[in-house]
Specification:
Strand content: 15-25%
Radius of gyration: 19 Å
Number of domains: 2
Distance between the termini: 39 Å
CATH class of the largest domain: Alpha Beta
Order of helices and strands: EHEHEHEHHHEHEHHHEEE
Shape: globular
Largest sheet: 6 strands, parallel
Length: about 280
């Protein structure tokens, strides 16, 4: 497995990588969810192609009061895990190389980014779209894989690829969960023992809401209120948002018109967790 940190060297290598090139962008602190993306990348790359993972904690997608400085960075462990998964190349640039001090060009999505996480994390998706655009230019992948836990991100990147005519196929991968249902996240390590005990309430509530949608006619507002009240039974839970939306437009949608996305963002202490269930 090759580890590349130079942007110029990455660009030279990209032209020679065996095709198809399948990209798995990460910020490191890899868990089994990330590794499942690498497994899928290996399948799509096949025997002749290349699997490329990135490890880059992108500063432009963190807000001023978010956890950029304390975000875990176990680089050596991450590389060992990727090597065991037969990843071909790891691209791990430095922020100073990725962003010039006077950088003044960004990539903005103006519709899907205005809801859900975009409300409480202004500028976040500008950072996401900008860094993914840069990675696409540097690596020139044929396929890029993103987890469905960050469903809004996935929808925005699909829109970006469509609207900017990137020759990249975006592939979503199902959420990987702990046995109790908690979605795997690098931020789970921040949870206290009591917070970790309550955190699976998000998925349990969304799963029950899915059953309600399938069993009976219920309005969007009624369903959102049910989800909210159930999650608030967790004494440490502080809801950021609960929403029922169209999975393509991310606009509010009545749940009797499938498909719909049931999504929530919840704070446990200072840790913000997101989860969703797509009802088709």
């Amino acid at each position: 497995m090759q580890i590349v940190k130079s942007l110029a060297w990455m660009q030279r290598l990209a032209r020679a990588l065996p095709r198809p090139v399948v990209l798995v962008p990460t910020m490191g602190a890899l868990h089994e969810g990330h590794l499942a993306l690498v497994d899928r990348a290996n399948e799509l790359a096949g025997r002749k192609g290349s699997t490329v993972a990135t490890i880059f904690v992108n500063p432009t997608q963190f807000g001023p009061r978010e956890d950029y400085r304390k975000y875990p960075r176990p680089f050596s462990r991450d590389c060992l895990r990727l090597r065991k998964k037969s990843c071909d190349l790891v691209f791990a640039p430095m922020p100073a190389d990725m962003y010039s001090p006077d950088a003044s060009v960004v990539v903005t999505e103006s519709q899907l980014a205005t809801a859900m996480c975009g409300v409480s994390r202004p500028g976040h998706f500008v950072g996401v779209c900008t860094v993914v655009t840069k990675l696409f230019h540097l690596i020139q992948p044929d396929i890029a894989i993103f987890g469905e836990k960050d469903f809004q991100q996935l929808a925005i990147l699909r829109r970006m690829v469509r609207d900017l005519n990137f020759p990249v196929r975006i592939v979503g991968h199902p959420i990987v969960r702990e046995p109790d249902g908690l979605a795997l996240s690098s931020r789970n390590v921040y949870l206290s023992a009591e917070e970790r005990q309550q955190a699976p309430l998000i998925h349990q509530t969304l799963r029950d809401a899915e059953k309600s949608v399938r069993a009976q006619s219920v309005s969007r507002r009624t369903l959102e209120n049910r989800i909210r009240r159930r999650i608030e039974q967790g004494s440490l839970a502080k809801i950021d948002y609960v929403t029922v939306v169209d999975p393509e437009t991310l606009r509010p949608k009545e749940p009797n018109q499938l498909p719909v996305l049931l999504a929530a963002a919840v704070f446990f202490g200072g840790t913000r967790l997101i989860d969703n269930i797509l009802v088709k």
